[in-house]
Amino acid sequence: MKLKLIFLTLFLSTMHLALGQVKFEAKVSKKKLGVNERLRVDFEMNKDGDNFTPPSFSGFTVVGGPNQSISNSWINGKRSYAKTFSYFLEPTRRGSFTIKQATIEIDGQTYKTLPLKIEVTGAVDKPKDGNDTDFVASENLHLIAEVSKANPYLNEAITVVYKLYVSPRISVSNWRELDSPKYSDFWSQAIDMKQLKIENGEYKGEPYRYVILRKTVLYPQKTGKLNIEPLTLTVSVDVPTKRRDIFGGRLYTTVNKTVAAGNRTINVKSLPTQGKPDDFSGAVGSFNFKVTTNKKELDATESLDAKVSVSGNGNLKLFDLPKLNVPNGLEQYEPQHNERVRTNLTGMAGDISDTYTLVPQYKGKYPIPSISFSYFDLKTETYKRISSDEIVISVKNGPDGGNTVVTSESEGSTNKKLVTQTGSQFRFLKLNANLQPIKKEYFFKSTAYWLSLTAPLLAIPLFLFFGKKRQERLSDVSGNRVRKADKLARKYLSEARKNLGNQKEFYIAMERALHNYLKAKLHIQTSEMSKERIQRLLKERGVEDTITIEFIALLESCEFARYTPSSTSAMQQDYDKASRVIATIDKQL
């Protein structure tokens, strides 16, 4: 029985000590700072005490404090108490220093903090005040530009990914671009970011959340050291404070911070000169090359298409295709250039082509000589050449040539063919002209003479009348604004029709058309176009409620459809609905 009593006494004593455990500790805003920065030191305790004695702060000057804050809260029936003494320090020199122990008496016992080591370095470019929310936001928010390759070749694709890192200690409520990079020395293509996604990661070894804001593919157009300009954002950051609400929850304050990704420099290498072909046009990547025709047999004066195409991965939009050489006797027209190129994080991919229209004049065989295409292969870092096959065009029916020579030039050889001429080479000239004598007429005192004399006098009243009407129209400011908005509405509605199938452009044009129609009919500006105000104004003008609801639904459809997938049939339905609703409102107004 005595043994049980002893164990019970020990257990209750342990529980009492655990429940009544005193915490007294020192915390610093950072353990490494510049000699021109400030340091914040907090001495926190979870129970009130007496005779607090701070350390001497050797190596620092106290520029603020002690500031005392007390927090009392009740959570689920349990009391939570915190008391803090805060000091703001300024280092006196470089070196390693130690924040020594502070002491306090709580319930008759003396408690001490652990010493903290601080490293002071040289002055930093942007000194940060160790005080309050602005410093906390700066330390926990970072905008980073990640470059895929720092030493690319000229015209080699690199990717810049902009990531915004946010510490779990803070939260971000909003951001907007303050300044966008220009990429003046690059060909650039932004990758469309359909939806921003928050992911977990690390920044300098600490857990962070991040979001990818922008992805851009760059092709350097110059060699040497090129600068990638920074992306700059203004961010609204919610930072926790020392204050709490009546329920014990921590209060937050919002700080607007400007963050930049920083300048990035890449060293662009020039393409090697060894083995560089004379006809090299700047193609860099991995490509296929071919020359094809849609016909190889036809009659004279019929046409055929010869297509010179390059496909693969690389700077497809940044070089010229080789020219097609055809023999005499084939009439050649300017080529039609086509591009089917998509851009992703690996660069451009797809194909480009020049399509020539050729028309043979006489019958015979016409050889189209082989042409070659050279490019720089990034995988092997060597130049490669691809040559097309010779194509022979057979013209079966048509006139024979005479002294005209049809030639085909290929590498190292020339084939010539004499063709006989027919006797109708000058059939387009008319040898029997039917000429008629010109009758002499005098202008003086003729009908045309009297008309030219009196017409300016008769036109004066008309000029005065139309000038007055034009002046009245120009002075009608309100009417001009209405006519301009009405014209823009028709313009954008027609523009929306042209962009059927292109979801983003279609709904942007549709929304502009609806807004400009309201400007024309209701005499309101875009900034005043709330849904409630539009409904009220249309109802006051006698428009039926069902038509008003349809108009508001169209505006909402334009807002949502730009961010959600939509089919061509749905776009056609929205266009037809917009035309019908605008026509109905026009009649009822």
From TrEMBL:
The protein's matches in PANTHER family, at most eight in alphabetical order, are given as: BATD (PTHR40940:SF2), PROTEIN BATD-RELATED (PTHR40940)
One of the Pfam families matching this protein, by short name: BatD
Write down the superkingdom of origin.
Bacteria
Task: Indicate the segments annotated as coiled coil, or none if absent.
Answer: none
Q: Which InterPro entries match?
A: BatD
Which controlled-vocabulary keywords does the entry list?
Membrane, Signal, Transmembrane, Transmembrane helix
Q: Tell me the protein's name.
A: Protein BatD
Where does the chain cross the membrane? Answer: 448-466
Write the signal peptide boundaries: 1-20
